[in-house]
Each structure stands twice: as C-alpha cells, then as structure tokens.
Amino acid sequence: MTVFKKSLLTLGAAAIILSFVLILIVLLFMNSLYYETSALGLKNTAKTLMAAIGNKKIAGVFADNSIDDIDMMISSSDVYRLTLIEPSGYVLWDSQIPGRLVNHIDREEIKAALEGREASARRDSLTTNMKQIYYALPVYGVNNNVIGVFRLSITIPEFWARVSPVIYPFLVFSFIAAGIVFIIIFIFTRSLSSSIYRLVDITQTGASLISGSEADEKIAPEFKSLEKAIRAMTYELNFQLERVKTEGQRLEAILNGMSEAVFAADSELKLHLVNPRARELFNIENKKVTMTLLEATRSVELTEAAKKALASGTASETELTLRSGAEQQFQVFISPLAGFKSGVVIVLLEITKIVKLERVRKDFVANVSHELRTPIQLIKGFSETLLDALSDGENGSRKQLIHFVEIINKNAGTMENLTNDLLILADLENGSKNARDLEDLNIAQLIGEAVASAELQAKRKKIEIKTDCPGDLKYSLYGSFIVQALINLIDNAIKYSPPESKVWITAQDSNGELVLQVRDKGIGIPAEHLERIFERFYRVDRSRSREAGGTGLGLSIVRHIALLHKGKVEAESHAGEGSVFRIRIPAQDQTY
C-alpha cells in the first residue's frame, strides 16, 4: 500500500471517528443541559407553588394531619407530582399515587430537606418505575423547626425518546459532513502525494535542473523550492559520482596495468583491494577478497612489516624473499593510510632477475679476475726473470730462455683466448648479430669448416674425427656462430678424450629441427655436474681444465649460440664413458 493510500485511509477514518465523537459529545452535552434546565425549572415551580399555597397552610396540614385540606388547596396535575413527607419518612400525601407509600427517609433530597436545605435529585422512581427529577423544600413549624418536606417532581422521558426526532437528520448531516471532509482530504493528500512522488522521481532518476516547460508546472511554492534544491543536489551528486566513477576506472586501469603487486588492507590487515598482478603472484582466485594479508600471501615477514608500518604510522621499504614455488625476491614498499578507517597500502616489486643479474655480475667479475690472475702473474714473473737474466749479462742456457718465452707466450695466449671468448659472449648476450643476417647454409660445409679448424689439434693426439651429414641438408643460420659452437664442442671432445680415440659429428633434420651432435669417448662428466656445465667459468675439474688451456666459457658460448637461434643445447655423459652434446635448432624461415 502506498503512502498516499495509507494517509488517505488514515485521515478519512480519523474524520469519520471525529464526526461520531463530535455527535456523541453534542448529544451528551444536550442531555446534560436538558437535565440542568429541567432541574432549574422544577426548582422555580416548587418555590412558586409553595409560596402560592403558603408555608402556614402547609405547616397546618402537617400539624393537623388534614389530607382533605391539601386536596382543596392543590388541584391534580398530570405533569407535576407533589408529595408531602413527614420527618419520619412517612408519605403524608401524594398528588398522583393514592394509598400508602413506602417510607422515604432514605431519599437524598428528603434527608437534605429534613436538615433544612433545599435539594434536588434525579433517578428512577421505585413507585412509578419512571425516571424523574425531584426537588425538595423544608416545611418549617411555629418554632422554626422542620416539621415536614414539600417535594415536587416531574417525569422526564428517556434520552433516545427525546433525541430521536433530531438524531436521524443530525446523523445524515454528519455523514454528509464526513464525506465532504473525506473529499477535501483526498484532494489535499492527492496534491501532496503528487508533489512527493515528483520529488521521489527526481531523486530516483537523478533529474537535471529545472528548465523549459518544467519550470512552469503548477506545484506548491514550498515544494517548488524543495524541488529546486533536490534537483541541484542531485545534479551535483551525479556530477561527483561520474567524477568518482571516472577516477575509479582510471585507478583500476592503472592498477591492472602495473607489473607490481598491490595490496590495500584495513587496520586489521583485512584486504579490500588486490590488483591482477598480486592475484596472479599469490594465486588468489576470488575476485571479492575477504581474506587477511597473511591468508593471501602466507608470508609472516610481510605481515609483520605491515603491522610495524601501521604501528609507527610511517612508510617503510624492505626486501623480502618469498618461496611460493620458485624462490622470488621482492622490494616491498609499505605506506600507512590516515583517515577514518586507517589501513595500509603494500606494493611488491619483483627484483628476482635483478638480484640474479647482480649475482652473475659479481661471479663474473670474481671469475674473470681469478682466471686472469694466474697467467698475469706467470707472465710478470717469467718476464722479470728473463729481464734480470738479460740485464745482468747472464746469457744462461738457450734452452732455459726458450722455456721462459714459451711460458709467457702460452699464458698470453690463454689471456687472448679468454678475452676473445668474453667478447663473443658479450656479443651474444647483447643480442647483437654483428650485422649478420640469417642465411640458407649447407650444414655439411659448416661442419667441414669446424673440423678443419680443429684438425691440427686432433692430429697431435692422433684422434680421428668422423662426420655424418646429408650433403643437401640446409638451414637458415648465422653461419659463423654455428661454426664457433661446433669448434668449441670439438675442441672440448679432443681435450678430454684419450689419444688415438675417435670423435663423431653428426647432423640431421628431426621433426622440423636441426640436430647437431658431437660425441666422444673421453673422461665423461659426473651426473651431479651436468646441470651446471653451461654456466660461465664452471669447470668439473679446474686444475685439469687449466692445463688443457680452457677458459671455462666454451660451453656457455655454445648455449648462447643455441638460444640465438631460438634453440637449446643438451648434454649426456657418464664418468669414464664419454659425452654427447646436442644443439637443437628449430627451422627459422624455411627448411630444406
């Protein structure tokens, strides 16, 4: 039920009830007024009648007990009833009821009159069984004492009998008045409700400011002012809501586009904002986050850092390691929020790659320094010895001088090789292809070029190099890099193979990728070292590697060359059984 109907029914019912109450009050008032008027008239009539008869004559009746004299003095009347009562309550005479009557000593008006006071009463008569009004006057004797009671009464009709002639017209008039009031209330509430509905519609639809024909519509001035105020307020609220919505969308776009993980939590660290990066990082699937920071991240360190920031009220920055799967390093920025509902904003910037790169840089510097220290010290030491021998005029043996020069030359070569390998590795890591383009090259020719470069070294150890490659196999490659990778693998195979052994080089097209393989029967690589042999400067046996003249960068260069071709490198080996290295390169533009 609408407010209009409720108010209409309420006011209508109130009007009808008010009409009936008003009628009842009027009737009760008329009834009371009727009794008072009748009692006053009866009083005046009683006094007039008593005065007309005379107090002495009435007193004589009581003194002589002469009832006949009373009949002569008072003619009978159908309207008024006159009763004379002795002090004992005995009814001496009654104008309408002959015979002996009951004792009236207990009547109120009789008691008052015997005490010398005038009194009236209204009740149902026990004698006539009719409602009557009584008025009693005391009758005084010679000694001025009360010798009897002069009482006059009148019969009054019932209330409904008196009002029935006018009650029905009065009720009709009342119903008509109530109907008129109801119509007036209906019209008033209708106009009021239309104005209210208009205001409600404005607030619900967010109507704009009044303009045009709307400004001329008939409406109460008070509501007109209220409508203008509501419209202005609604317009301002709509403007602010659109502004907030735009800012929210902009903020959401920024948060969604951030590579950093962002959390926003209240003072109890209950999350109310998590950006997509944070959801992805901590595997949070529920879009409506209702969990705490600890439940979402499972990191006690991060939770403790957030609590400290909340307690101190100052922003903080720290580094944190999370182990959800792989180990990840983060730089964490925590900023407390001030306001009615305090909270905290947490930003996690992943620095795992930066940390790894820094670690690699430090290892690289340490390894390069370590690798260069020995040859530099040897070159410096033997050059100083040779210089001292020549400056002192000591010729020494020719054989000894040649030995010194050979050591210097060997270590200078080691430094040269290390420098060249570092330059190649830097070139590969920087993604530079030295202005080269992919070329469709014959794989057999590239293998032949690599074998030719290592042929002299192989002859020294009497190692036979065997090749197996289809003569028409072609791939789009950076030729010089592939040759360099093969040279590094062949060189390692020769270095770590026993004399008079064999090295096998094969190439084939397998499922759309080029597979280059170098296999030997050398000393092999223990299984625990296989995962790290492609790292820079990693050696299985450092002393033996240095004696063989290796820089520790050869396999790392091979790996980077494979990555340059979007491929990969594999190694299989068992200690004492030899090793197999494979380079797998997918087809670039086309395969032949």
General description of the model:
Helix content is 52%, strand content 20%. The chain is of the alpha+beta class and 592 residues long. The protein folds into five domains: 54-156, Beta-Lactamase (2-Layer Sandwich), CATH 3.30.450.20; 212-249; 258-350, PAS domain (Beta-Lactamase, 2-Layer Sandwich); 355-426, Signal transduction histidine kinase, dimerisation/phosphotransfer (DHp) domain (Helix Hairpins, Orthogonal Bundle); 436-586, Histidine kinase-like ATPase, C-terminal domain (Heat Shock Protein 90, 2-Layer Sandwich). The strands form four sheets. It has a five-stranded antiparallel β-sheet, sandwiched between helices. Strands 7-6-10-9-8 form a five-stranded antiparallel β-sheet, sandwiched between helices. Strand 6 (261-266) and strand 7 form a beta hairpin. Helix 5 packs parallel to helix 6 and helix 13 runs antiparallel to helix 15. The longest helix is centred in the first third of the chain and has 51 residues, at 3-53. The two termini are 85 Å apart.
Shape: rod-shaped
- Rg over alpha carbons: 64 Å
User: What count of domains describes the coordinates?
Assistant: 5
Structural class: alpha+beta
Low-confidence stretches: 209-216, 542-546
Number of strands: 17
